[in-house]
Amino acid sequence: MFLKSGELILHVDLQGSCDAPVLVLLHSLGTNLHLWDPIVSSLTRYYRVLRLDMRGHGLSEVGQAPFLIEDLAKDILSVADYFGIDMFSVAGVSIGGLIAQNLADRVPERLVSMVLIDTYLAPTTQSIWSTMAYDIRNHGLNHRIQEIFSRWVTPAFRDTPSAIGMKQMLSRTSAEGYAGCVEALSQIKPEQPKNTKVPVLVLVGESDIVATPAAAQEMAIARNGKLVVLKDAAHIPILEKSDEVLEEMMKFLVKNFNQTIRMETSV
């Protein structure tokens, strides 16, 4: 379905029982909500799963640049408010994990728990992101697709149908949408988390050279989270290691949802 958020039209998918706890899934830069397809059917047995295409990705409009991570987080809240969702868990990959952390720092009272997948507290070397945004906006995305894609999955996975599907997501992402999100990344300032009470699970591919295991460990410590390193995985493990990602997410989400229910009923 399509919803209006401010001046933007966003593409949204909502599945699962209206009585189930809500889980918001945020995709990575250069993909779209279909990144989560391999595990959505399993998650919707227990959760009401909300996915949306980020600005300039999939079928969502890009709107006017520049925009910030805060604006991408506001898009999530706008969609949640439309459906009357007050509290939810959130899982985000790469930039999706940075959006999730922005929500945790700005509206922690709305988050039950948070899964951060192959992301970091803040991007390193902001000048690189600014240069990339300029290049893509002026020369398009096609000349960088192979470079970007090569970091997403391990060499053994790159020729599989699922990996090629991810590459198609990237090639069909608008240059303006990609550049706008890269600019948003370049504006994130390194700082200590404002809120460390939201329960956190950190997942990272052992071969991730973008958001490295070391960066994941730093983030897990800063946010009082649990760190799990996924073997034989790179920057976007949702397709390559879907079973492992689903297993770790389910163990974490069920535990923290049950704790939240106990806390609410004891008040």
UniProtKB/TrEMBL annotation:
Keywords: Hydrolase
GO molecular function per UniProt: hydrolase activity
Matching Pfam families: Abhydrolase_1
Domain named AB hydrolase-1: residues: 21-241
Keyword Ligase: no
Name of the protein in question: Epoxide hydrolase EphB
Taxonomic lineage of the native organism: Bacteria, Pseudomonadati, Pseudomonadota, Gammaproteobacteria, Enterobacterales
